[in-house]
Each structure stands twice: as C-alpha cells, then as structure tokens.
Amino acid sequence: MDAKETIFWSAAFPGFGQILNGKLIKGFIFIVIEILINVQANFNLAIIYSFQGEIQKAIQVTNHQWLMFYPCLYFFSMWDAYRDAGGGKKPWASLPFVFSAYFVTLGLFYSSKLEIFGVLLGPVWLPILFLIPGILSGLIIRRIVLYFGRRKI
User: Which carries the bigger pLDDT value, residue 149 or residue 152?
Assistant: First the structure.
C-alpha cells in the first residue's frame, strides 16, 4: 500500500488508513474513538453551522473540552497509517504531523475569541487555517534537524 494514500484515507476518517494497512483492530479502535469524540463535541453540528456561516451557533454548540482531543487523534491516526505503510522510515517524518496537531489544537483553543481581519472563524475554520503554519513549521524544523544531524561538530 502506498504510504501517502493511507494518509488520505485517515484524513477522510481516522481508522480507515489502519484498516487499509490490514490493522483491523487498531483501525476499529480509532473509528470508535473518533465517533465518541465527534458525538460528545457536537462536531458535526458545528461543521454544519460553520458551513452555513453561523459561527456563533457553531461556537455555542461545540463542547470544546471534547473537541480538544480531536486534532491529536486525527493527526496521530494519519501518522500511524503512514508509518505502518512504510512512510515512517524517513528520519523525523513525524514532525509535520506533530506540529499540525499542535497548531490545529491552538487554533481550536482560540476559535471562540480570535478574529482574522475582523472575522470570527469559529471551531472549524480557524483550526483549518492553523493547519498551514503547522505543516510548514513541521517541515522546516524537520529540515533543520536533518541538516544539523548530518554535520559533524
């Protein structure tokens, strides 16, 4: 199985990449945890309100304490599927996933207060926006670590 393909399946739904890799029990555990967090956080309703432009309603229905678990589950599921498919053999390959989880969680943390250009983005759009610096910082730090790891001091 192509390692990158498992990332896309895990992005579609945590656990699908594991099932694709033949790790059925682990995949079903990720699916159950995802459903539990999703239901407890009212995340689907927050997504619907966000897509309809009703950000205040999305903020009100979201259980942020539950939703804070979601980015770590989501990105760990992608990393785990990628690693099991052979992609984890590259040194420090986990850094973009780790930093993405961190930045998306940070975006979620500030989602009810932080405005971008005077617009409150809420618990769906702001974390998605925070994904960009998360991936970029993870890739940059990985390059730095690899560069200095090759140099002899």
Answer: 149
What residue type is assigned to position 49 of the chain?
Y
pTM listed for this prediction: 0.90
Q: Are 114 and 103 contacting, i.e. CB atoms less than 8 angstroms apart? A: no
Domain boundary assignment for the chain:
3-150
Decide: 42 and 117 in contact? Cβ < 8 Å. Answer: no
Sequence-separated (6 or more) residues with CB below 8 Å from residue 92:
142, 145, 146
Q: CA-to-CA distance for 2 and 15, rounded, in angstroms?
A: 16
Token representation of residue 43:
């995340």
List pLDDT tens digits, range 46-96.
999 999 999 999 999 999 999 999 999 999 999 999 999 998 788 999 999
Q: Following DSSP, what letter does each residue of 109-125 receive, concatenated?
A: HTTTT-EETTEE-HHHH
Q: How far apart are CA 135 and CA 153, in angstroms?
A: 29
